[in-house]
Amino acid sequence: MVISKIWIEEDCTACGLCEEICPEVFKVEEVAKVIPGVNFGEYEDKIKEAAKSCPVEVIRYIE
Ligand code: SF4
Questions:
Q1: 33 class by beta-carbon count within 10 Å (0-12 exposed, 13-18 middle, 19+ buried)
Q2: Predicted pLDDT at 20
Q3: Global pTM?
Q4: What is the DSSP letter of 35?
Q5: Rounded to the nearest whole angstrom, what is the distance from the C-alpha of residue 10 to the centroid of ligand 1?
Q6: Is 22 left (phi over 0), alpha (psi -120 to 50) or beta?
Q7: What is the residue with the minimal CA distance to atom 2 of ligand 1?
Q8: pLDDT tens, position by position, 3-36
Q9: Which structural domains are found in the chain, ordered by start?
Q10: Of ligand 1's atoms, which has the minimum distance to the CA of residue 50?
Q11: Is the CB of 33 within 6 Å of ligand 1?
Q12: How far is the centre of ligand 1, averaged over its atoms, from the C-alpha of 1 (Å)?
């Protein structure tokens, strides 16, 4: 399955971990954002790792 959509729910603490793990997809400013126009398929493993590692579990995706 290919990840078709990623979003960040409320309560991101801007810890920076998702950007550290996958800077191609996540950009953390006041809160984490998904960089537009990225081919998620190229970064599936890192996206899943970031979602798993997020301390407040706000990274969601649809496969
Ligand atoms: S890992 Fe989670 S809490 Fe940390 S910046 Fe990313 S989305 Fe926000």
A1: middle
A2: 98
A3: 0.96
A4: P
A5: 10
A6: beta
A7: 54
A8: 999 999 999 999 999 999 999 999 999 999 999 9
A9: 5-62 (3.30.70.20)
A10: 1
A11: no
A12: 24
